[in-house]
Fold this protein.
Amino acid sequence: MENIFDVKTAQQYIDRINQLTPETAGKWGKMSVDQMLAHLNVQYEIIYQPEKHPKPGLIAGFMLRNFVKSKVVSQMPYRQSIPTAPIFIMKGNKNFNEEKKRLIGFIQKTQQLGSDAFDGKKSHSFGKLTAQEWNNMLAKHLNHHLTQFGV
């Protein structure tokens, strides 16, 4: 698994994002490229702007921690067209350039904060995670969707 806290790796993700255009089509799934960027931004909003998204309720939190967490934080890649949580579903058009700029900023901020800032940090849905679990979750989500759009 790539290390998102590494400068070179973060730049490789940014370089891939910079290959996208508003016309880039996905190889699978229903999202447009602008929706995909907004979708990826939700994961970072939950980290950096937690007030923007409500925490899962008691039962949903239990289910997420006990049945979903291991799949999300492992190094096993996501398969194509897997279901997503409702807060990650994007409807309508998004501003491609704004979403792209925000995503690049989030990647840079995460890299600059480094793994120490994430080790033991609480996840919105999964409780405390190790830096490696944060890395796996963020890196494989980015890679999954950038691959979906051919970059």
Observations:
- The longest strand covers residues 122-123.
- The chain has a mean pLDDT of 95.
- The chain has one domain: 7-148.
- The longest helix spans residues 96-113.
